[in-house]
Amino acid sequence: MSDSTSPALAYAEGLAAGELRFQHCPACEHAVFHPRVLCPHCGAESLEWRTSSGLGAVYATTVLHQRGADPYNVCLVDLDEGFRMMSRVEGIAPESVAIGARVRVAVVARDSEPLAVFRPAEAAQEVSA
Hints:
This protein is mainly β. It contains two helices and eight strands; from the N terminus they run αββββββββα. A five-stranded antiparallel beta sheet has the order 6-5-4-7-8. The protein has a three-stranded antiparallel beta sheet with strand order 2-1-3. It is globular, with a radius of gyration of 15 Å.
């Protein structure tokens, strides 16, 4: 990935390669997510790309019910590297997703686009992304 690659494209390329990428600001030492051109904490322009281990804990979760469709959860996950992202936990019933549960990222294809979702950490080791 070159310095001229847009942050959104660099993130998408990472997902296509099976990686959850995030940025790190060497000036203030903060993890930065969603990808951007400036650090939201200090305004620095020189953000570095890193690859997340994909491990984190559920910070918040809710179950959504749509008419004519199965319920699904939407959650916020605090990744071990220090950033939070919105996604969903798959592989268990939406009502079973618990705050504090350890999860691991899995990159799946949705509408032919890679998407970062999470699975329970112990189950994610058994299933390949």
